[in-house]
Input
Amino acid sequence: MIAVAKAAGACRFRVADTLSVLDPDATYALVRKLRVTTDLELEFHGHDDLGLATANTLSAIKAGASHASVTVIGLGERAGNAPLEEVAVALKQLYGRETGIILPELENVAALVAAAAARAIPLNKAIVGEYVFTHESGIHVDGLLKDQRTYQSLDPALLGRRNRFVIGKHSGLAAITALLDELKLAASADQARQILSQVRKHAIEHKLPVERKTVAAIWRDVCGCPATQSG
Output
């Protein structure tokens, strides 16, 4: 089929896994077999019915595909297609491949497309979700404050973003201490532990993250003095 297409003047052959029947190994084997038999451009088009569109697309590229068929935030039929942002960032992060995509603009592009399509972006959506660089767990925050690589391989700066620490029932002393320092609120080690206890209690009772102003109010209750900065 590729030979006939090339003879007729085609410059690219597109492998479309429209039914989502491939896995990464099968994708690699198929595209590799095609790559060694033709010098045409090869494009891979993957659907995400099994949640494998990005993985299959990366496998196709490793096997020799020259083009990837993608959509912003994976919009497409049924479960959608390989998301542009996932493929572009994975190629850079895992393989050092440059795509020409301006990575810090991915968040803005995703927001624009989502608004135009009247689709909400899940908070935990890879690369462009609001929460992908958000941390609450005490051990995670403590590690990140010491060395970001402890609990995060992807540098948010690559995407023009930064880490965000949420104060809640899973927060630890390191997060509380860091927030108090940021708010310029002095507290002893014992007072910080008391503040942490009350913060966790507040989070459990309200089933929500604890806002900075609430932490400042708890600090005032524990330390018995007015805050210099409420946050």
